Amino acid sequence: MLELQGLTKVYNTxxxxxxxxxxxxxxxxxxxxxxxxxxxxxxxxxxxxxLVQPTSGSAIIDGVNITALGPTGLRKARRKMGMIFQEYAxxxxxxxxxxxxxxxxGYVGFWRSLFxxxxxxxxxxxxxxxxxxxxxxxxxxRADALSGGQRQRVGICRALIQNPSLLLVDEPTASLDPKTSxxxxxxxxxxxxxRGLAAIINIHDVALAQMYVQRVVGLKLGVVxxxxxxxxxxxxxxxxxxxxxxxxATIEKVDDEDEDEAV
Amino acid sequence: MPMTEKNGQKIWQVRTTNAQLIRWAAWLVGLAVFxxxxxxxxxNTLWFMMDNVGEVVADIAGRAxxxxxxxxxxxxxxxxxxxxxxxxxTIFALVMAVPVAFLAARNTTPSRLIVRPFALLxxxxxxxxxxxxxxxxxxxxxxxxxLAGLIAISIRSIGxxxxxxxxxxxxxxxxxxxxxxxxxxxxxxxxxxxxxxxIMPAFAGIAVFRWDINIRESTxxxxxxxxxxxxxxxxxxxxxxxxxxxLILLVILVAVVIGEWVSAKxxxxxx
Amino acid sequence: MSAALEAKLGRAWKKPPFISNxxxxxxxxxxxxxxxxxxxxxxxxxxxxxxxxxxxxxxxxKAFAEPDFTSRWKDIYKGIYESIVMTVASTVVxxxxxxxxxxxxxxxxxxxPVYLICRAIVAISRALNEIIVAIIxxxxxxxxxxxxxxxxxxxxxxxxxxxxxxxxxxxxxVQAEAIKSTGASWSQWINFGVQPQVMPRLIGLSMYRLDINFRESAxxxxxxxxxxxxxxxxxFDRYEFDTVAAIxxxxxxxxxxxxxxxxxxxxxxx
Lengths: 263, 271, 270
Prior knowledge:
The structure holds three protein chains of three kinds.
Chain A: E1 2-10, E2 16-25, E3 30-34, H1 41-48, E4 56-61, E5 64-65, H2 71-79, E6 81-84, H3 96-101, H4 110-114, H5 120-132, H6 148-160, E7 166-170, H7 178-195, E8 198-202, H8 206-212, E9 215-220, E10 223-228, H9 235-242, H10 248-251
Parallel strand pairs in A: 3-8, 3-9, 6-7, 7-8
Antiparallel strand pairs in A: 1-2, 1-4, 4-5, 9-10
Helix pairs in contact in A: 6-7
Chain B: E1 3-6, E2 9-12, H1 17-43, H2 53-64, H3 76-104, H4 115-128, H5 131-142, H6 146-170, H7 174-182, H8 187-218, H9 229-238, H10 242-270
Antiparallel strand pairs in B: 1-2
Helix pairs in contact in B: 2-10, 3-4, 3-6, 3-8, 3-9, 4-6, 5-6, 6-8, 7-8, 8-10, 9-10
Chain C: H1 3-8, H2 22-41, H3 47-65, H4 73-104, H5 112-127, H6 130-141, H7 145-169, H8 173-181, H9 186-220, H10 228-237, H11 241-269
Helix pairs in contact in C: 3-11, 4-7, 4-9, 4-10, 5-7, 6-7, 7-9, 8-9, 9-10, 9-11, 10-11
């Protein structure tokens, strides 16, 4: 279970990115975080694994207060949080397999990782995950030889091999075409339910969010302005979050059954 | 758009009148500085000696041809030494440049206020001073020979390599590094997985590039006693043995051309 | 579970090697290591001499703490002055000669015979080390800054013309063609289509070369071609390390200043 209590972030420039965010996310729940650009969605996710240092407040995961941890404790805590990035953030000059195995860095020592001598169980798990996302044959290709959708799948494998209890997902589909976006969203949600993972997914695309998640949180200028079921997203609510616009077309239910091909 | 009025007509100009004046003034100052510099050189030159330059050139050219080909057997060891100075010097320099570069790059330095300026000082002072001057110094410390040349080339190359390398480090993609951090990796692991792969091509390019330069530089180190083929050049020059000099110059030219060719090939293969 | 996956489970994983051909890979690795060892072997290290020299090295380092600018100030001043004069004059002349040669060495502008001649000039200039050129010129012209000036001008040509020619070859074709299609003459075409595209780079490279020429001018004196190098050489010969330190500090500060200046100028023109 993840609890955020009064999480606040003020950047050095004086910009208040988050103010007093309080949220509770139970195990296994997939939450979409929506809001306009600059609302603090990315900052919120990065405050949870402390890639960004929160100014005040706390993030408690399974009883451990992340904001109070020292460097070693933080590294241990980060192993429990898999992160998936907007631009995939694969290390492009490493192979797919190395990228996936880099998810185990928190578990293996420096010398083992330097000489790429990962335990056999990690290697097997990496192969299983790559097989699950349909990239087994690509294992020894370099990451920059892959397409956008393929790279994001490798990114998902890297997050999952950490054996996390929470996924932090930052705009997973922003760099992808509509069809690949759906496939990736579906894959993430499926994997979460297979493994009982909780997830916070930053997403621009409201319709896509509604299609796949159980709960939506709306953020505006660093403040939570909506928290409820996807079906509760009315034009009024969206106007409140994003500002005036014709929202009817956006929240119209999209029929998802037509493209159930392998992801 | 700047316009001026003349006889009631608008005239278009590229620049405003003031800007134009500043430009002319800058050109004028530049020209004055140049002419003054030239006059200084001219004043320090004995021009009457130039009357017979043609004869001098013809005389030296006559003495220098044909090169004494048989002398080549004695050049094996000097050219081997030259190559060793360049290659080992580059390796040493890289070993030392890597930590300096990491200390100097804004995104990897442990402290911007204390460590970074110190690293930058190492970079600027080693690369501002020519390897011949380093060689001069080292000959007086460790004595004449290959060792002095090797250390001179290493020191001169540290700053050069570290500068290019730290610029490459500052240009890396931060998100890739963040992604590795987010897995719970230790700082050393972040370095090996997140940063090193990104700067590897730059590193290889710099190494080969500097090796090429070092071959050129190590050919002349012998002039100050720091080993290699320059030593043979110096002793031949001292006794005005022009046929030997011309042969040595030819050998140096061939070595430099081969070095450039090899480095171009290797760079092509890496990138 | 797919068959492909089953085949891989339980098998060790190794990063694919950089060079896939194992024979080539091992030959290269062993050859490189062997060369390094043999090359090391060839260096005579005279421990006695180093121990004796170490005190001198320490003196040199100490000299940086209290450099002596005053006792040889006249020589230092004259040397630095001459270095600067040589740097300025040779950079200007070098640039002036480089530009036509760069135009000639760009394959997309020059006809083949011109291209070959210009490329040959560039190649010769680059292959000849400055010091060697200076030695030859001193032999011909006698001691003094003229030899240094010609050396640096000649070296500038190889450097600048090559990089500038590459820049011209990489320029945006469409912009240049647009000017050509207006019916411009060759010189108008260079002036309007080519020059604006390569100008920032030309200025940047010129500043960089000014910096290099100054650094090089500091060593030309070692072979009698004028500049601070002569003073430096004398100071070394007399083991006057405090004067050496003073000269080196002046060189380093000047280079830093030139780099800073070129940084500012480059930032302004881009």
